[in-house]
Amino acid sequence: MQDILLHLFKTARFLPLFISQFLGAFNDNVFKNALVVLITYDVGIRAGFDPALLVLIAAGIFILPFFLFSAMAGQYADKLERSALVKKSRWSKLS
Questions:
Q1: pLDDT tens digits in sequence order for the chain, 95 residues long
Q2: What is the reported pTM?
Q3: What is the Cα–Cα distance from 89 to 42, expressed in whole angstroms?
Q4: If we measure between CA atoms, which residue out of 77, 39, 71 comes closest to residue 55?
């Protein structure tokens, strides 16, 4: 099984997809964390709070929606077709 997965990383069809997915997630996380650190340190120093504690709280707030809603999103993904979810979310934004 592991040999099949390692082979998948090396194939020319999937390697660009894996690289772009990794770089996209890495870019989002680096930008988010840099922004959180800069803002909370600045706010923490000006307000007189402990900046390290504020950075920890801000990181927890960013992670909280993924923790709370991932199970519900997985259930929706199993129950409904992807095309139906796209249509519903598209129409809800237009209305």
A1: 667 767 766 776 777 888 888 888 888 888 877 887 788 778 888 888 887 788 788 878 888 888 899 888 888 888 888 777 777 776 655 55
A2: 0.49
A3: 37
A4: 39
55, 40 in Cβ contact below 8 A? yes
Residue 74: other Cβ atoms inside 10 A: 10
List phi, psi (to 5°) of 21.
-65, -45
Rounded to whole angstroms, the Cα distance separating 48 from 66 reads: 30
Please give the structure tokens belonging to residue 48. 């007189």
Structure tokens at 24: 């996209």
Q: Compute the 3-state secondary structure of the chain and give helix, strand, coil in percent, each to the nearest 5.
A: 90, 0, 10
The H or E element containing residue 63 is helix 51-79
Identity of the amino acid at 67: F
- Residue 51's contacts (CB-CB under 8 Å, 6 or more residues apart) are 40, 41, 44, 45
